[in-house]
Amino acid sequence: MTTLNAELRAFYEARQQQIPAEVREVMRRAGRELADSGQADRALAVGARAPRFSLPSATRRTVALDDLLADGPVVLTFYRGAWCPYCNIALRSLQQHHEAITARGARLAAVSPQIPDESLTLTEKHALAFDVLSDIGSDTAKQYGLAFDLPDDLAAVYDTLGFDLQRVNGGHPRTLPLPATYVIDRAGTIRWAFVDTDYATRAEPAGILAALDALD
Questions:
Q1: Domain ranges of the chain
Q2: Is the pTM of this model over 0.90?
Q3: Which one of 14, 20, 132, 158 is CB 3.0 to 4.6 Å from 119, fit for a cystine?
Q4: 53: phi then psi, degrees, rounded to nearest 5
Q5: Distance separating alpha carbons of residues 194 and 43, to the nearest angstrom
């Protein structure tokens, strides 16, 4: 069975052939700078208390972390938005493993800086059965140490690619979260964490399930 990251890597390699060399260089330089910034090491890690939040869902229903934790542990994943094909692949993979996650008594929630209407379109397109939440302005991502600002040249590239982050992120076009996934126990403590500056690398569902199995 192909792993999620093998699928992501294959997609990345194929996509690179379709992107002009000068655009690839801008993306690679931005990626190197973000990796070198050490931000992934500064993000919340295992043992930290998970910051509380109340965010609107795709249907504009307020979802609070405390409410999710009332039912059991929570798998919380941060993604860039519906415009990001790597995020879509990762979310589809999580949906494929959603039943296995809920069978372990856990709730799954995905957070991005995009507006609820974009989340609703994404939810319907991929038939997502879990909460897709809008962190407009990335305040929650900031609390988890994940938010960063796009450099000028990469922001310009995204504009030329038609991503329209000004609209989809509700007037906050430059701030995005690092790809990250946390397993939070019922006491609100982070028990497993995946954080990476590389948008083409995501938490493997098998790792998430193993982390849930390891909870006391």
A1: 4-213
A2: yes
A3: 132
A4: -155, 160
A5: 10
